[in-house]
Amino acid sequence: MNENEIKEMLENVKKGITTVKEAQERLARMPFKDLSFARADTHRVIRQGFSEAVYCPGKTKEQIVNILKELKQFSPVVLATRIEPDKAQEVIRMLPDAYYDEEARIIRLGKFPEPVTSRYALIITAGTSDIPVAKEAMITVKSCGVSVKTLYDCGVAGIHRLFNQIELIQKASAIVVIAGMEGALASVVGGISSCPVVAVPTSTGYGANFDGLAPLLSMLNSCTSCVSVVNIDNGYSAGIISSMIVKQSK
Q1: What is this structure's pTM?
Q2: What is the mean pLDDT of residues 90-104?
Q3: Which distant-in-sequence residues (6+ apart) come within 8 Å of 8 by Cβ?
Q4: Residue 135: partners with Cβ closer than 8 Å, 6 or more residues away
Q5: How many domains does one find in the chain?
């Protein structure tokens, strides 16, 4: 249930279309639903504009399904993140209208909403190996009702590939930069963009990449002041943050 639906329900109570008891029963399920094994944050879609996501590692397929079903009653689309193929197929059998993106490791329950603004978020990866994290971010952004554009394989080792897209970069309202190795791409993009940059370090790289620690530290030490950093491989959080930035852009 979103803000408009609550307003409509209250108007219907005023008009006598909905009884006070019916409205009370619907509102009683907020701000969270106690499922004994989880407390589904049914209020988040009103508070922040997007639904709580289900982080799947450590959860059974039954738990994932039950949480998704509960959250879906309050949001047009709900995500289950970091779910592996075998468990995902079991969940989809229990939720026939769910869709699984194996590369992003995300289950999406519900259709993408129409974009709320003509502005867009731009997702840039340093390499092709960073695309799975980019897809997690992309699906998240689209689930929040924001348009998204992508530029893959534009790392600093061939920086001309990036400079060929200056107009697309400078017209974006938020940019997500996803890079492993030494993570230099975030600083470069921050230096030529006119909007906030959300940097995502990835575990892509050889030994001294330290599973993403090297690019994480590089991004945190960026001299470009518009760059902010999320956790290693965390495309979901980058997607949420960038979509909120776009929605608040003028």
Answers
A1: 0.85
A2: 93
A3: none
A4: 101, 103, 104, 106, 235
A5: 2
